[in-house]
Amino acid sequence: DAGVIQSPRHEVTEMGQEVTLRCKPISGHNSLFWYRQTMMRGLELLIYFNNNVPIDDSGMPEDRFSAKMPNASFSTLKIQPSEPRDSAVYFCASSAQGALGYTFGSGTRLTVV
Amino acid sequence: KQEVTQIPAALSVPEGENLVLNCSFTDSAIYNLQWFRQDPGKGLTSLLLIQSSQREQTSGRLNASLDKSSGRSTLYIAASQPGDSATYLCAVIDSSASKIIFGSGTRLSIRP
Fold first, then answer.
1. Which of A37, A60, B15, B103 has the fewest CB atoms within 10 Å, measured from its CB?
2. Is B47 on the interface with A (CB under 8 A)?
3. Is B88 on the interface with A (CB under 8 A)?
4. Residue B56: pLDDT band by 50, 70, 90 thresholds?
């Protein structure tokens, strides 16, 4: 298995632009998580899905952030419009209901200038 | 609300030493606990997973223990090497097995 796959690895965009981050979970995993990591705040859970349904989005910072999971093998995290304070590394993780732990992708480093 | 704390925040030791990283959590009703390693600019690599019914797990030079009643876990690294330098994160998976909550990590530096 190739693990959790995220794209792009790096993204540099101008303030106000729309940004879309992508994630492909491990096949057979039914839970998917989006995290944001910064030096100041560490790892923050943004949203998670169970069987493609959003369960808890209380960590999504603002309405500018939205996430979708149209099927079991794909999820997106969208920021529109982006702001410099959104600059961070965004991680996607998947799990088979936590029983065997969580597997993380390599992350997307987002820089908003 | 579950809170996970890791002490110390940073640790520097000479190569060859055995060391212990600490993790504490406030709610003992957990599903399991997972230790991760993160290298600078990289993602998280799972090291050890301890189920709530287990007391410890071992992988090579690493040993993780879990004491649910006291809300503590330790990661023991034997015969440390410069390649062990990284940030080590402790994460608790809640009792519903639906959420993982991270500590802030311990930044470990092994001096040659």
1. B15
2. no
3. no
4. very high
Question: How far apart, in Å, are the Cα atoms of A40 and each of A36, A57, A67, A87?
Answer: 11, 21, 23, 12
Beta strands B4-7; A108-112: pairing state: unpaired
Q: How many CB pairs under 8 A join A and B?
A: 55
* Whole-Å CA distances, B20 to A26, B40, B49, B64, B98: 32, 21, 17, 9, 28
Confidence band of B99 (pLDDT split at 50, 70, 90):
confident
Q: Using pLDDT thresholds of 50, 70 and 90, give the confidence band for residue A101.
A: confident
User: Exposure pattern of B23-40 as b/e (b: 16+ CB <10 Å)?
Assistant: bbbeeeebbbbbbbbbee
Q: Are A98 and B98 in contact (CB under 8 A)?
A: yes
pLDDT at A29: 92
Band of residue A5 on the pLDDT scale cut at 50, 70, 90: very high
